[in-house]
Amino acid sequence: MGNGTSAKDRAYRDTKARILDGSLPGGELITEGQVADALAMSRTPVREAFLRLEAEGLLRLFPKRGALVVAVSPAEVEAVLEAREVVEGHALGKLCEAPTAEREAVARALHEVLYVQRAALADDDEPAFAEADRRFHITIVESTRNPILLELYASLRDRQLRINLGSLDRGPRRPQEILAQHEAIVDALAPGRADEARARLRDHLDATRVAVAGTRSPAAS
Amino acid sequence: MGNGTSAKDRAYRDTKARILDGSLPGGELITEGQVADALAMSRTPVREAFLRLEAEGLLRLFPKRGALVVAVSPAEVEAVLEAREVVEGHALGKLCEAPTAEREAVARALHEVLYVQRAALADDDEPAFAEADRRFHITIVESTRNPILLELYASLRDRQLRINLGSLDRGPRRPQEILAQHEAIVDALAPGRADEARARLRDHLDATRVAVAGTRSPAAS
DNA sequence: CGGGAACCGGATGCATACAAGATGCATCGA
DNA sequence: TCGATGCATCTTGTATGCATCCGGTTCCCG
Known about the structure:
Chain A has 221 residues and is mainly alpha-helical. The first copy, chain A, has 9 helices and 3 strands. The A-B interface holds A 2, 4, 44, 47-48, 51-52, 55, 57, 63, 78-80, 82-83, 86-87, 90, 144, 146-149, 152, 156 and B 2, 44, 47-48, 51-52, 55, 57, 63, 78-80, 82-83, 86-87, 90, 144, 146-149, 152, 156. Chains A, B: Keywords: DNA-binding, Transcription, Transcription regulation.
């Protein structure tokens, strides 16, 4: 999609960023006019951005009423995590049985990401750590070379971001745990060990589930 | 999404239908103005419909140029079938290990669908057969109760429709084959037989792959 | 004091107007 | 003859205007 600097894209990126970083909390009601005024453009491009955000599940449009920033619900958390397990699990399984050359190429890429992530942890560089985390999972899904799955996964990652916002994902030992689980996943990347790789993925996602569980704000109805 | 009779929805449904039934073949270049005139509305709602269709992978928008009806490529066929296998396979596996009551409820629903599909075959009622086919697969995916996976699957089914258009999916024995494969899938729905159910699904999708293979028109570049 | 209808403000849905980018062709020059 | 340039035309991108619809409030009447 045009990442050019069209008004539509600005509206899309700005609003999405505000939703993902929490400055537009779930339950908030926003209007096309507000965003249009804030970005000094007309309602038309904002409208298109809203439609796209609704398709991504971040907004819910109410006819003649406004746009509701959807609150993260436990059901959504579960749906996102299940979908992630399905997509990433498939990618891991496929990768285990892929030709050696390809599997090792991806494994090398993953090791590189882990190296960066370890360094970020050592430097206490949270953004770099998060970015490496993102690269790790995306690299796995990219290995399927399936644009449909990849696009779905991109949307899942966005939702995950928002989910993590309200969670205690920042426990002191959590980064180490994440890193260890990533390493366990990569270590299981070998022919015949697909089930194990998927099990390690499940461990990883379960940890996210735990980190997120019970930390939701009641979400303005 | 509002299935009300708004202009936007009419533009969306009409254009989508025309793409899916082949009256707008892949490679065709259409414009907002054409559709707007044809439906006696302004460009605004058409534009929104186009954006949505692009998100679904049916159109590709070229800035200031027009909208290209994307031609089905072998790569897309493969991507759709792989994604279907991932989603439906997950649903089947989950269903096999689900509580007995739930599994049997879904199995009953599937048997009902198969009954309808058999009747449609006997009556030589192609639309009814296709609709039953659709219900069969959707019922499986619905059993996950995961709206994300369900929505993805809906989009996959649409793409599959278009893929089937240019295929020899109408071989004389093909309906019997489909029905038999559906039955094999349902028969494998039992605890501990998840792998078998997935294998039967793979058989089914492989048959589609074969039916579609080598029947593509060269697709205007 | 309570209930219902009219009213008002605000937001969207769509139509229309205008500006700007892109393409293809005709034209012009070497 | 061939290539570059400018133009005509088509299409999108964005702005703006207006009608409609919704919800909350007010006002009137019983």
